[in-house]
Write a structure and sequence with these properties.
Blueprint lengths: L2 H14 L4 H25 L16 H17 L13 H10 L15 H6 L9
Helix pairs in contact: 2-4, 3-4
The protein binds heme C.
């Protein structure tokens, strides 16, 4: 391990050390969901999720709330119309993180279950459908 990596590891441990492991994982996944939304989704759906013109609002979105993470994952994996598919840009874990994040952020709450990596891997589109 290089010095820089060791320092980063110690910093990460001291930041996370007070929390139980599952809470650390939840927090890391939520932080990744926000990072992904900010870098990939907000350009079209707006930073607050309010949408604009042809880009639907994701904030307080009845379908996102009802259909939950599995619904968001479908959009992210396959795209539709003017929304590009992200299957060529994201890892399985990143799709999981953004799909689980959106239905419980931006004014949404959901009773639908979270998605997991196995489910996402199983429905990953063929390379031909990932431009
Ligand atoms: C290039 C612009 C663009 C980007 C970037 C984009 N979207 Fe979209 N998104 C759209 C458009 C346009 C639609 C509506 C498509 C249609 O109905 O024809 C849409 C629809 C959706 C819907 C369905 C909304 C509903 O009311 O049913 C979800 C969910 C969604 N996007 C999530 C995301 C997420 C999550 C990201 C980031 C990973 C993202 N989008 C990035 C353009 C975009």
């Amino acid at each position: 391990m290089t010095v820089a990596r060791a320092v980063r590891a110690v910093l990460a441990l001291s930041l996370l050390g007070a929390l139980p492991a599952h809470a650390q994982n939840d927090q890391a996944a939520a932080a990744d969901g926000l990072r992904l939304y900010t870098t990939l989704c907000q350009a079209c759906h707006m930073p607050d999720g309010a949408g604009a013109g042809p880009y639907p609002k994701l904030r307080d979105n009845p379908t996102v709330r009802r259909a939950g993470p599995a619904y968001v994952a479908q959009w992210v994996l396959f795209g539709y119309g003017a929304m590009i598919p992200f299957c060529n840009l994201l890892t399985v874990d990143e799709v999981v993180d953004i799909a689980n994040w959106l239905p419980s952020h931006l004014g949404n709450t959901t009773a639908a279950p979270p998605v997991d990596p196995e489910a996402i891997r199983a429905q990953w589109p063929s390379p031909a459908s990932c431009p």
